[in-house]
UniProtKB/TrEMBL annotation:
The keyword Coiled coil applies. Signal peptide: none annotated. InterPro entries: T7SS_signal (IPR049082). Residues 115-135 are annotated as: Disordered. Residues 3-181 form the Putative T7SS secretion signal domain. Residues 154-181 form a coiled coil. Residues 115-125 have a biased composition (Low complexity). This is Putative T7SS secretion signal domain-containing protein. Keywords: Coiled coil.
Length: 375
């Protein structure tokens, strides 16, 4: 790794490409979403008419598989969050390196100017002393030893760079550990074996072979050893090929919901803006038992004014969900809140279609816990 005075490129002083990490964060988020959507589709598989030893073996292996896929989706999304934090720290550290370079250049100018002035003073003193000696004058002019005023600025530059490197190193270690915590330690974990096994069996069931094949490919890709790669010089996580290899995987939650026989999120048209009244007119038995939540959040209208969502659409019954009061703190105010916050960060220009698709993703993942359930 280069040091100050050897380069004017901040990335040579602090290596890494935050933009490359951002791309991988987006891929991780997309694959996390696909894993959750695959869980929904797998949970919807009905093999009631299939009998015999093969059917029994399938059910034994498959019964808990959707939950595993939910866990895999959460892990991939968490990995994206962790890497996003690292990318932000890397950007900050490289900005600090740029500042250190400017300080170093300032120090060099200070040194050069002071050295020139000192050299001139020595030359002047020498000439004067020679003239004094020739005139028989014993006066001898002395010049103070050179004191480099640029050294303190150079040290400030070193300190700035060292602090940035140290903080980045600490965050890199924490990031790598967080990723190792969710990376399979064994060559192939039980989860992996069950995942591949169930999907291989699922590929034999008419009507879901293509979905199973795409999900299986995504699962294998998800076993990349990305933990160590986060602190590499290029900071490139080996997920770049996913976009090319995941062609058969269904990307949008809306398509997954339809394939599983569920209704995707949609807007209707409300006749008034009292959405609680709208909801409880349909479900009077739930009044006092649930918190009414918007599938596409009200905040989305403020965040995406160009999407053109009307109040009548936002508060329509079709866009309302009931969340049991005892689950509201963890489900609505925590889990769903975090999901939407990630969406807002990653989608600065979302369309109405994007918002409804993400609401469908939320329904796919949490809809079984709503009241009435939507999955």
């Amino acid at each position: 790794m280069a040091e100050l005075g050897e380069t004017e490129n901040p990335r040579a002083l602090i290596q890494g490409d935050p933009n490359a990490i951002d791309k991988n964060v987006n891929i991780l988020n997309a694959r996390g979403k696909q894993a959750v959507n695959a869980a929904v589709a797998l949970r919807a598989i009905d093999t009631g008419a299939w009998t015999g030893p093969a059917a029994n073996a399938f059910r034994d292996e498959f019964s808990y598989e959707p939950t595993k896929w939910y866990e895999a989706g959460d892990a991939l999304t968490y990995a994206g969050e962790v890497l996003s934090l690292y990318a932000g720290t890397l950007r900050w550290a490289q900005a600090q390196a740029r500042e250190a370079i400017e300080l170093w250049k300032q120090a060099q100018r200070q040194t050069a100017s002071a050295q020139a002035a000192h050299d001139q003073a020595v030359a002047d003193a020498t000439r004067q002393n020679q003239a004094n000696a020739a005139a028989g004058d014993p006066t001898c002019i002395t010049v103070e030893p050179f004191s480099d005023p640029g050294e303190s600025t150079r040290q400030a530059a070193r300190d700035t760079l060292n602090r940035a490197r140290q903080q980045l190193k600490q965050v890199a270690e924490e990031t790598a550990q967080a990723l190792r915590d969710i990376t399979p330690a064994e060559e192939e974990t039980t989860l992996s074996k069950l995942g591949h096994g169930a999907l291989d069996i699922a590929g034999l069931v008419p009507g879901i072979g293509e979905l199973a094949d795409g999900a299986n490919a995504a699962w294998y890709a998800g076993q990349g050893r990305y933990a160590e790669a986060v602190i590499s010089g290029a900071a490139a996580i080996p997920f770049a090929g996913w976009a090319a290899t995941g062609g058969k995987a269904v990307d949008r939650a809306t398509d997954i919901a339809k394939a599983a026989g569920h209704t995707p999120a949609k807007f209707g048209h409300a006749t008034h803006t009292n959405y609680r009244k709208t909801f409880f007119e349909r479900h009077p038995e739930l009044e006092g038992k649930v918190i009414v939540h918007h599938a596409v959040e009200q905040q989305a209208r403020r965040n995406y004014p160009d999407a053109g969502i009307t109040a009548a659409e936002m508060h329509s019954y079709e866009n309302l969900r009931g969340i049991p009061k005892d689950q509201n703190p963890t489900l609505h105010l925590s889990e769903i809140r975090k999901e939407w916050n990630r969406f807002y960060r990653n989608n600065p220009n979302a369309s109405t279609e994007d918002l409804l698709d993400f609401a469908t993703h939320i329904d796919n993942k949490y809809g079984g816990r709503f009241n009435p359930p939507v999955r």
